[in-house]
Amino acid sequence: MVEFAITLPILVLLVAGVLELGRGYVFAIATSDAARDGARYAAGKTATTNGPGLGAICSLVIADLKAITSTVSCPATSVGHAPPFNAPADYTAPAAGQAVVAVYCGASVDCKGSVTSVTNSEVDVYVYYGFSDLNLLGGAITISGSSRAITSW
């Protein structure tokens, strides 16, 4: 009984750590997939079509993230310079359980543009998600992470 009483807290912390690692991995995959889908959607622009626009990219990313969070903010305008992006100058850092999308549209302001002016232009779609723990330690630990995907169209 004494040995069990000594090892039980350690075992509980190990199990909680494994659960947290699993949750973090699920959120990382979800945000990475959402960023990749948004970038892939922008990359669907061809030499004969205009880009889909920032609003359409944001709608796709938000739809992808509905499974993990209901709070996603996506900008009305894209970031005005190529990555790396920095908070708070380029985007608002997400709070726990929230996601923020930052998009750079290269030669276009809103990922639309004319066919010839933005062909093969860089588009960067970043999704930042604020990850927090299960409040095992009273919420004393907050882990923030981000995922991103980059493509060109």
Short key terms for the protein model shown above:
single chain; 153 residues; alpha+beta; 2 helices; 4 strands; 35% helix; 16% strand
Topology:
Elements: H1 2-43, H2 54-65, E1 72-73, E2 99-104, E3 122-129, E4 145-152
Parallel strand pairs: 1-2
Antiparallel strand pairs: 2-3, 3-4
Gist?
The protein is of the alpha+beta class and 153 residues long. The chain is 35% helix and 16% strand. The chain has a four-stranded mixed beta sheet with strand order 1-2-3-4, with helices on one face.
How many DSSP E strands? Answer: 4
Question: Assembly type of the shown chains?
Answer: single chain
Q: How many independent structural domains?
A: 1
Radius of gyration: 19 Å
Order of helices and strands: HHEEEE
> What's the overall geometry?
elongated
Rounded mean pLDDT score: 78
Descriptive report:
With 153 residues, the chain is an alpha+beta fold. The chain has one domain (2-152). The protein is 35% helix and 16% strand. It has helices at residues 2-43, 54-65; strands at 72-73, 99-104, 122-129, 145-152. A four-stranded mixed β-sheet has the order 1-2-3-4, with helices on one face. The N and C termini lie far apart (65 Å).
